[in-house]
Design goal:
The protein is mainly alpha-helical. It has one domain. Helices cover 68% and strands 0% of the residues. The longest helix has 23 residues. The termini are far apart.
C-alpha cells in the first residue's frame, strides 16, 4: 500500500503530515470547516439580501444556493483536471473530489431540501425556518473536526464516536429548544450525523455523508412529524 492509499484508508492517519501547508494548512482547513456553522444564519436570516447583492437582484436565496453549488462543481472539475491542491487540502485530493466540494454540495442540498415550514404548514421566517436545515449543517461542521482531532491525537475510534455523539446530541437537542426542531427527529437523527463520519471509503467524503445520512433520515421521518 503506497503513501496515498494509507492517507485514504487509515482511520487514524495524521492529516497534518499530509496537508498542503503542514500544521498551518491543517489548522486553516479546520477553521474553514467550523466557520461553515454560520451558513444557516446567513441563509435563513440574510439570504435574501446576500442573494440580491451578489446577483444584482436576479436570484432569490434558493436559486443562489443552487447556482453556487453548480459553480463549486465546475471549479472542482477544473481543479481535478489540473491536479491542483490548495493550502489545507490533502495530497490525495489531487485526483479525487475534495472534502470542501463534497461538503459544499451536501450543505447546499440540506438547505434546499430541509423543510422550512412549521407543523401547521405555514412557512417560517428568519432563523426559525432552519429548524432542520440548521442542525444538519451545524452538526457536520462541528462534529467532524471534533471526531477527526480525537482520532488523530488519541488513536481511539470509540472515544471519537463518544465525543461525536455528545456534540451531535448537544446540537440537535439544542436546536429543539432554540428553533423548535421536533424532539423525536433530534433524538433519531443525531446518531446519523456521527454515523456519517465513521465509514472510510474513496467514493464520498464524510463531509457529505455526515449531512446526507441524517438528511435522508429526515425525509423518511417527515410524514410522521
Amino acid at each position: 500500500m503506497n503513501k496515498v492509499e494509507v492517507q485514504k484508508k487509515d482511520v487514524y492517519v495524521d492529516h497534518v503530515e499530509h496537508s498542503v501547508g503542514g500544521f498551518g494548512g491543517h489548522a486553516f482547513r479546520r477553521a474553514t470547516h467550523v466557520s461553515m456553522a454560520a451558513v444557516p444564519y446567513l441563509y435563513y436570516v440574510h439570504g435574501e439580501d446576500i442573494a440580491s447583492l451578489l446577483t444584482f437582484g436576479y436570484l432569490g436565496p434558493r436559486e443562489f444556493v443552487s447556482a453556487f453549488c453548480l459553480l463549486i462543481l465546475a471549479v472542482e472539475a477544473i481543479r481535478l483536471r489540473s491536479g491542483i491542491v490548495i493550502v489545507g487540502q490533502r495530497e490525495y485530493e489531487s485526483d479525487q473530489i475534495s472534502a470542501l466540494a463534497w461538503g459544499s454540495v451536501a450543505v447546499s442540498l440540506a438547505l434546499l431540501i430541509a423543510p422550512s415550514e412549521g407543523k401547521d404548514g405555514l412557512v417560517l421566517e428568519g432563523i426559525e425556518a432552519g429548524r432542520y436545515g440548521a442542525p444538519l449543517v451545524i452538526a457536520m461542521t462541528l462534529v467532524d473536526p471534533l471526531m477527526g482531532e480525537v482520532k488523530r491525537t488519541k488513536k481511539d475510534l470509540k472515544m471519537a464516536i463518544a465525543a461525536g455523539m455528545v456534540m451531535s446530541y448537544t446540537i440537535w437537542i439544542g436546536c429543539h429548544f432554540w428553533l423548535g426542531t421536533d424532539i423525536i427527529a433530534a433524538i433519531l437523527l443525531a446518531p446519523l450525523t456521527v454515523a456519517g463520519e465513521v465509514p472510510s471509503n474513496n467514493l464520498i467524503d464524510d463531509n457529505a455523508t455526515m449531512v446526507l445520512f441524517p438528511l435522508c433520515g429526515l425525509v423518511l421521518l417527515l410524514p410522521f412529524l
